[in-house]
Write a structure and sequence with these properties.
Elements (H helix, E strand, L loop, with lengths): L2 H8 L14 H4 L12 E6 L4 H11 L2 E7 L3 H4 L13 E2 L2 H8 L5 E4 L6 H10 L3 E5 L6 H14 L3 E4 L7 H10 L6 E7 L28 H5 L25 H10 L1 H6 L7 E6 L11 E7 L8 E7 L20 E6 L2 E4 L8 E2 L17 H9 L13 H16 L7 E5 L4 E2 L19
Parallel strand pairs: 1-2, 1-4, 2-3, 4-5, 5-6, 7-10
Antiparallel strand pairs: 7-11, 8-9, 8-14, 9-10, 11-12, 12-13, 14-15
Helix pairs in contact: 6-7, 7-13, 10-13
Length: about 450
C-alpha cells in the first residue's frame, strides 16, 4: 500500500481502535466449556428490536455467539429469543443489570439503542474492557463523541460504528476516483437526505407529550429514558419516532450524515473544521427543525486545498450544477463532489462513484476492500488479520466525524450565524455555543 493509502486507512485517528494481539489457539489451549478466544467471540446485545435485530443476525453470521441479551421492550425485542443461538438466554430490560450479572460471559457488546444511550452503554462496556460495535450516529453529543474516541484508545478495545456502507466497496471506489484526480481539485462537497417528514415528524409544531400515560407492560419506560429527562410515555416517541426529538435522537442529520458524508471525510481526509453555519426552519429546541442546511469550512491540509462541505435535509437539495448530465438524478440520499475539472456523485450508502463525464477512465484499484462491516469487526475482536489492517469506522475515525456532524446541530441554536470552531481545544470560540457540547444526564439513572 502506498504512503497516501496507508494514511487513509491507518492514520492516527484510525489507529485509535487499539492493537489486537493474535494468540494462536494451540498456545491458549481449549476447554470443554469454551473455545479459545481466537476461535470464539461471545457478545452481549443491547437493543434487539428493529435495527437491533438486523445487527444481531449479521454479527452471528459473522462468527460471534450471543451470551447476554437486553431490550427495554420485551415484545418488540423478544423475537431474538426464537433464534437458535439464543437457546437458554434471558432478555433483560436494564443493560446495567445484564452487565453486572454476565460481565464474565461476554467479550464484546453490540449497541443498537436510541441515539441518546449509545455513549452511556458503550462507555461502560469499554471501561469493562469489552470490544464495542455501536450503531450510528456514534453518540448524541459532541462531548460524548470524543469521550468514545478516547475510551477506545485508552482501553485498547476493537470498535466499529454501524455505518455499514463504509465497508460496501463504494467508499473505496470514490476515494480512488478523487485521489486519481478524475474531477480535478475538489472545492465543494454537497450531501443530502430524504429523512424526516415522511419518515418521522420534525418541526416547530412537534412537542413532547405532557399528559402521563402508562407504558405497556412490555416496555420498561424508565430504562428507555435512561439518561434522558423524565418524560411521560408516548407511542409518538417509542419505538421509532424518537429520532425527531433532541432528548433521544439526532434528527435527520444524525441518522444519515454518518452514511452520506462518510465519502467526503475519507476521500478528502477531513480533520477538524474551522467553522460551521446552520440555516434552518423554526427551531423549538424540542424537536429538530423541519429542514436544515449546514455549511462546514475545512482548512487546507498538505496537498489538499481548503474545502467546503454542505448538508441538506427536510426536502432541501443542492442546485444542480451546469456540468451535470440531464439524465443524472440526485435521488433521496447522496453525496456530490465538485472539482475544478468536473463533478461526481459518489458515496458509501449512496453507492459507487459516478463522474459527470461518462467517458472517464476508472482508476486502478489501490485500496484494500473490506471483508464486510460486521465481519471485519468480529475478526479483529478475535485477533484475526483483516484486509484494511484496522476496522474502517472505528471510534477514532467515527468519533471525529460524528462530532463534526454534531456541530451542525449546535448551529441550529444560532441560525444563520457562522460559529468558529477550535479543533485543538475542541470548543467553539463563542462561549454560548459551548453550552450545547453536551446534555446533562438524568440523575435518577445512574451508570
Amino acid at each position: 500500500m502506498s504512503r497516501m493509502n496507508r494514511r487513509q486507512f491507518m492514520s492516527t485517528a484510525v489507529a485509535a481502535a487499539g492493537a489486537v494481539a493474535i494468540v494462536p489457539p494451540h498456545i491458549l489451549g481449549k476447554t470443554a466449556k469454551r473455545d479459545a478466544p481466537s476461535d470464539t467471540l461471545n457478545f452481549a446485545k443491547v437493543g434487539c428490536g428493529g435495527m437491533g435485530g438486523g445487527d444481531f443476525g449479521q454479527v452471528v453470521r459473522a462468527g460471534a455467539r450471543p451470551t447476554a441479551l437486553c431490550d427495554v421492550d420485551s415484545k418488540r425485542g423478544g423475537g431474538v429469543l426464537r433464534h437458535k443461538a439464543c437457546k437458554g438466554l434471558k432478555l433483560y430490560s436494564d443493560f446495567r443489570k445484564m452487565f453486572d450479572k454476565h460481565s464474565k460471559d461476554f467479550d464484546a457488546v453490540v449497541v443498537s439503542t436510541p441515539d441518546h444511550m449509545h455513549a452511556p452503554v458503550s462507555l461502560k462496556a469499554m471501561a469493562m474492557g469489552k470490544h464495542v460495535y455501536c450503531q450510528k450516529p456514534l453518540a448524541r453529543t459532541i462531548r460524548e463523541c470524543y469521550q468514545m474516541r478516547d475510551a477506545a484508545k485508552k482501553y485498547g478495545v476493537v470498535t466499529q460504528m454501524g455505518n455499514q456502507g463504509h465497508s460496501g466497496g463504494g467508499l473505496e471506489s470514490t476515494i480512488e476516483c478523487v485521489k486519481a484526480g478524475v474531477i480535478g481539485t475538489v472545492k465543494e462537497v454537497h450531501v443530502w437526505t430524504d429523512r424526516a417528514g415522511g419518515w418521522w415528524p420534525q418541526g416547530e409544531k412537534v412537542f413532547l407529550p405532557k399528559q402521563s400515560k402508562p407504558a405497556p407492560d412490555s416496555v420498561d419506560w424508565d430504562c428507555f429514558l435512561g439518561v434522558a429527562p423524565k418524560t411521560p410515555y408516548s407511542s409518538k416517541i417509542h419505538p421509532f419516532v424518537w429520532r425527531g426529538y433532541l432528548d433521544f435522537g439526532a434528527g435527520a442529520i444524525g441518522d444519515m450524515a454518518c452514511h452520506n458524508m462518510d465519502p467526503a471525510f475519507m476521500a478528502l481526509d477531513l480533520g477538524e473544521p474551522t467553522s460551521v453555519k446552520t440555516t434552518c426552519s423554526e427551531f423549538n429546541k424540542v424537536s429538530f427543525p423541519r429542514w436544515s442546511i449546514v455549511e462546514w469550512e475545512f482548512p487546507a491540509v498538505g496537498d489538499r486545498l481548503a474545502v467546503k462541505v454542505y448538508w441538506y435535509d427536510g426536502g432541501k437539495k443542492p442546485e444542480k450544477p451546469s456540468g451535470m448530465p440531464a439524465k443524472m438524478r440526485f435521488g433521496g440520499n447522496g453525496c456530490m463532489f465538485l472539482g475544478d475539472k468536473g463533478g461526481m456523485l459518489g458515496g458509501s450508502h449512496a453507492g459507487f462513484c459516478n463522474p459527470f463525464d461518462s467517458n472517464y477512465k476508472r482508476p486502478a484499484r489501490t485500496l484494500p476492500r473490506s471483508e464486510g462491516h460486521y465481519k471485519e469487526w468480529v475478526m479483529a475482536c478475535k485477533g484475526r488479520r483483516i484486509n484494511r489492517g484496522v476496522t474502517g469506522s472505528n471510534f477514532g475515525y467515527a468519533g471525529r466525524m460524528t462530532a463534526t456532524i454534531g456541530l451542525g446541530i449546535v448551529g441550529m441554536y444560532f441560525p444563520g450565524e457562522k460559529l468558529e470552531w477550535d479543533g485543538e481545544k475542541l470548543e467553539f470560540k463563542k462561549a454560548a455555543a459551548n453550552q450545547h457540547l453536551h446534555r446533562a444526564y438524568r440523575k435518577e439513572f445512574t451508570l
